[in-house]
Every structure is written in C-alpha cells, then in structure tokens.
Amino acid sequence: MSSYVEEIIEQVIKQNPAEPEFHQAVREVLESIKVVVDANEEKFRRDGLLERLVNPERQIKFRVPWVDDKGNVQVNTGYRVQFNSAIGPYKGGLRLHPSVNLGIIKFLGFEQIFKNSLTGLPIGGGKGGSDFDPKGKSDREVMAFCQAFMTELCKYIGADTDVPAGDIGTGAREIGYMFGQYKKIRGLFEGVLTGKGLSYGGSLARTEATGYGLLYLVEELFKSHGNDIAGKTAVVSGAGNVAIYAIQKAQQLGANVVTCSDSTGWVYDPDGIDVAALKQIKEVDRARLTEYKKYRPNSEYHEGRGVWQIKCDIALPCATQNELDIEDAKQLVANGVTAVCEGANMPTTEAATKYFQDNGVWFVPGKAANAGGVATSALEMSQNSERLSWTFDEVDAKLKNIMVNLFHNIDDAAKKYGFEGNYVVGANIAGFEKVLDAMNAQGIV
Ligand code: NDP
Ligand code: 2IT
Question: Any idea which positions bind substrate (predicted)?
Fold first, then answer.
C-alpha cells in the first residue's frame, strides 16, 4: 500500500492538473512532514487531515473591468484564495503580474500557511492577485484597476477575516488606492490591508521588513555555524521591494553585494550595488536596470538572466518562482557558494534545491527566510488594533527577534527529527505542527 503522503500528492496532481507550481509546493511540504504523518497515519487518515490541508477553505475568482486612458474597457481576472484560517485571519499578499493564474495563487497561499505559522503570530494563510500588468500603465489606469479590483474583493475581506498586502507588482501606490476604495464602499477605516502608507495606519519598517528579515536570518545562520557574513560576497536577483532592502541590510552587515536583476536584464557592480541609485530607478522612476550604468559607469549591464554565474559566498534569489534552476545550482556550487537563502517565494527548482542539499550548501527556503515581511504585517495589524504606532527601532527589534527565533525553531525541528542541517524539512515540520494542533483542536470544519 502506498503511503498517505504519496496518495495525497497524486490526488492533488489529478484534481488540479494545470497547476504545476501548486504541485511543487505541496510535494515539498508533504514530503518534508512525511515523518510526522507516517507516525500518525491512522488518525490523520480518519480525520482527512491532509485532504483538508491541501484544499483551500475558499477560492474566489472574479471579473475586474476597468477603463483605460483611451476610453476602452479592459477586463482582468481577480483571485483571492483563503487557504487556511486555523491559526488566525487569512493573511497574505496580492500579486499583480500577467503570469498570475489560479495555480500560482494557490501555490503562494499554500506556502503562506506554513510561513505565517513560523512567524509565531496569529495569522492564517491566504493569497490573491490578478493578471493585470502594472507596467507601462498610467497612475490613473492603475487607480482604475485597483478600485475595480477592490469593489469586488471588499465583500470577502476585513480586519478580522482576511487581510491582504503587497507582493509582486503591488506596492505602496496600489495598496493606497485599494485602501481608499475599501473605506469608501464599506465605510470602515480599519486595518484591512497592510503595507499601508504611514499617514493612514501603516507601520514603520514594513517597507524594509522582508529584505531586512532575510538578512537577520542569514546572519543567525552564519553565527550558528561559527561564521560571519561580514566580508562575504553576495549575489542578489530582483530589483524590487525584497531585493532592495536585502541589499541594503547586507551592506550594513558588512557584505559586498555585487548583482541585482529585473525582468529584462541584470547588473554586475563589483564595487557593490548603489542602493540609492537602485531606489531612484525602481521606486521613483519605475524604469529598467539599463539606467543603472548612468549612476555607476564602472558597472556592467547584461540583457537576459545571469546573476548566478557570478562567484559568491551567499546567493539570495529575490525575484520570482523557479528563477534558479539546476544549471545555476551547479554553477554556484562550482564557484564555492556557502549559503542560499530564498527572499522570493519558491525561487529554487526542486532539482536545484536537492543539488544544494546534497553538496552541503546551507539552503533556507522562502517560507522561513522571507517571513519577516508578513511578520511585520502582523505587527502592523497589532498597531492598528491598539490605534498606536511604534517607532522604527521598536518594530525593527521585534522583526529581528522573530527572525532569530524562527531560525532556531527550524534548526531545532530538523535536529529533533534526525534531519540536522536540512532547513527545508525543519521549516515545514515546525510550521505544520502549530497548524496541526489548531486544526485538531477546532474539530472538523
Ligand atoms: P516587486 O514587484 O517589488 O519586485 C519583483 C522583482 O523581480 C522586480 O525587479 C522584477 O522585475 C523582478 N522579476 C524578474 N522576473 C520576474 C518575473 N518573471 N515575474 C515577476 N518579477 C520578476 O516584488 P517583491 O520584491 O515584493 O517580490 C519579490 C518576491 O518576493 C516574490 O516572489 C514575492 O512573492 C516574494 N515576497 C515578497 C514579500 C513582500 O513583502 N513584498 C514578502 C515575502 C516574499 P521588474 O523590475 O522588471 O518588474
Ligand atoms: O509572500 C509574502 O509573504 C508577502 N507577499 C507578504 C504578505 C503580507 O501579508 O505581508
């Protein structure tokens, strides 16, 4: 007889045939927690535990019609997957990118369950978004889309039910337009979104949180191996919210970050990436990385992808899913990489992950390494609830504390189950245990 884990993986593939990223995320989690499932197989089967874990509580799909600057109507598809509310209100970002489909949102929502659990804070797992492409759109078009999106989404969310936030393509501008529309329609000024602007309920340090949190974890990882990140060379992909603040914190901690990338090309700057220039190009001008050379004439710009060929000690993929494949992994290992920590969600393919683990690279998966963003979102929710705002240093200190504890939590879980140094297994088991406990306590719902 095949194992319960194998049966459920097969079932997920059969029932959701067009969703390869969702299969990938489910496979990684279920194979990691197999040791726990095997030990409780009879009870878990009777309770339909894994069936309930892999089926979202609710999936919402809706039409988003909006008018472009030429007066033509455009129609996009909106999604919100409310995956698991065992430990708190659904929480997770909204992705705006042409590649968005239900399978992408489900993979992200599934990952979010375990990530949110690892933060130690009371937040369930959810994710949403749309196939809308903010690139090349005017501010008015972005506003029209965000308002149309929220006109429908506002029926399903709320400060105590489901609290969305940013993700790829959704930053401060989009969150502002969505918050305004929610308030207008629902007549409620409440913490229904996180990543808000500071003038209307946002938290200091939320903008920086994912990137900073990633580096707090990397710092602790190196410490736990009696090592230090000061003086190390780091390679980063992406040039968005996560990448920018990962680069900034890495530099503050004494590492030299020599690359970044966007959806069309990449930069190699051996003297270290100029964060001020990067912010101007990406956050203010919303331009391409081709502009970077104007600020740093000694840097190189290349079309296409290529950051993983640069020799480094630390690799931090911070752009998107499956952006680091087996060939990249071989190159990184051949170049002597020590640690790979995921700032993005599932940026490393399954084969590349296995190659890193087989070759002694310290590999930390996104659900642990990038949890600082959603953790700080939960801190924003706390501040909204008590109608107070904490200082930057207060939030930053809490974030650091969360990431240090999170690292030890996953490290200890891996050791406890006989997988020392396997942070994938550690993260999935540690994240799962709390969700399991809450699901068991609440009965069959
Ligand atoms: P942004 O939209 O701010 O930045 C994404 C960056 O990745 C951009 O530089 C983008 O290029 C680049 N990119 C390259 N290829 C792709 C592609 N195929 N699809 C999308 N982007 C691409 O997003 P974030 O920095 O917020 O998110 C990056 C990753 O981190 C995602 O996986 C996200 O899910 C994850 N994450 C984000 C958190 C957050 O708080 N924001 C929290 C935890 C995880 P270009 O500049 O050309 O658009
Ligand atoms: O992937 C993620 O954790 C996010 N995009 C952040 C989610 C959040 O609610 O802050």
Answer: 91, 112, 115, 166, 377
Distance from residue 344's CA to the centre of ligand 1 (Å) = 7
292-331 confidence digits (pLDDT tens): 999 999 999 999 999 999 999 999 999 999 999 999 999 9
The residue whose CB lies within 8 Å of the most ligand 1 atoms, and thus the one to mutate among 112, 113, 168, is 168
Contact 328, 75 (CB under 8 A): no
Domain hosting residue 64, numbered range: 57-189
The total number of structural domains that make up the chain:
3
CA atoms within 13 A on the CB side of 262: 20
Asked if residue 37 belongs to a domain, the reply is yes
The mean of the pLDDT values for the chain is: 98
Task: Look up residue 295 and give its two tokens.
Answer: 């600020």
Ligand positioned closest to the Cα atom of 347: 1
Q: What is the CATH number of the domain that holds 65?
A: 3.40.50.10860
**CATH number of the domain where residue 361 is located:** 3.40.50.720
In a domain, 423, yes or no: no
Q: Find the radius of gyration of the CA atoms of the chain.
A: 21
Token pair belonging to 129: 């978004």
Indicate if 242 and 176 belong to the same structural domain: no
pLDDT tens-digit readout, 142-152:
999 999 999 99
- State the average pLDDT over residues 105-127: 99
User: Among the options 127, 137, 249, 282, which is catalytic?
Assistant: 127
User: Based on the domain organization, do 47 and 104 belong to the same domain?
Assistant: no
Residue 256: inside a domain:
yes
* DSSP per-residue letters across 339-408: EEE-SSSS-B-HHHHHHHHHTT-EEE-HHHHTTHHHHHHHHHHHHHHHT----HHHHHHHHHHHHHHHHH
pLDDT at 232 over 70: yes
Same domain for 184 and 214: no
> Is the CB–ligand 2 distance for residue 213 below 6 Å?
no
**pLDDT tens-place string over residues 9-65:** 999 999 999 999 999 999 999 999 999 999 999 999 999 999 999 999 999 999 999
pTM of model > 0.90: yes
Ligand 2 pocket check for 93: Cβ under 6 Å: yes
Q: Based on the domain organization, do 225 and 287 belong to the same domain? A: yes
Name the residue with the closest Cα to ligand 2, atom 9. Answer: 92
Residues 2 and 18 in one domain: yes
**Is 158 a domain residue?**
yes
Single-letter amino acid, residue 26: V
- Supply the pLDDT for residue 11: 98
Query: What is the Å distance from ligand 1's center to 324 Cα?
Result: 14
